[in-house]
Amino acid sequence: MNLSLNFSTCPNDTFMFYALVHGLLTDKYTFDVHMADIEDLNLLALEAKPDITKVSYGAYPLIAEHYQLLDSGSALGKGVGPLLISKETIPFEQVKHIRIALPGEHTTAHLLFNLVFPDVHDKRFYLFSQIEDAILNNEVDAGVIIHESRFTYQFKGLTKLMDLGDEWEKISGLPTPLGGIAIRRSLPDDVKHDINRLLRESVEYAFQYPENTMGFVSQFAQELSTEVMRNHISLYVNDFSITLGQVGRKAIIQLISSSKPTHNFDERSVFVYE
Known about the structure:
This protein is α/β, with parallel strands linked by helices. The protein contains twelve helices and eleven strands.
């Protein structure tokens, strides 16, 4: 069976998907792979195009009619949140008056920013890898960074104003859900269960044989430093990436409910259970 599969070029995704897309786990399924920036993936999911896709949890309420979430493949944890950065210290009460760069309208970074700073109106959306330069070039006053930028902004003379993940963890008492893997609801249950299992096995393979994945990871990484790639993977790929567990599922339900408080998200409907 052939399935369309979308995921990002970021090291955590290429690391986790390496074994699956290189045919190391099954010959029952083949995949048409499309790799892109997370916001581009969100937009494709909004059109219900791919069978399986990486998606920001901030976007999930908009695609819930057509997709469920897999148990494996998530970027979720403590200390992983998007960072609000600038060239110089800005008092928090001034943030609502300044120009803010964000890595996509439908990203979890945007959702978390809105939860902390609901009154900001001058928000500008950029490709995540362009936000540091937008600040340095005075196109914006501050920006929210994700992915590899988390490890490089200080070397460019930029300063952290706030870790939005820390704010979420204070509010919720739960780890920060960033993104996960969604699968089309209309697929047969046995297929969804197979993909759930295969993705878990792919993550486990990456943990067991990390060196085997690094050529694939470095081929697509925005920041080619081996140290940055390894730090990126160690931050975003963890036990929650193998299985969400009760805590991970609770964190996701609480986050997506915060973006759509009038909707009751039921775990049995949201997640694929084996």
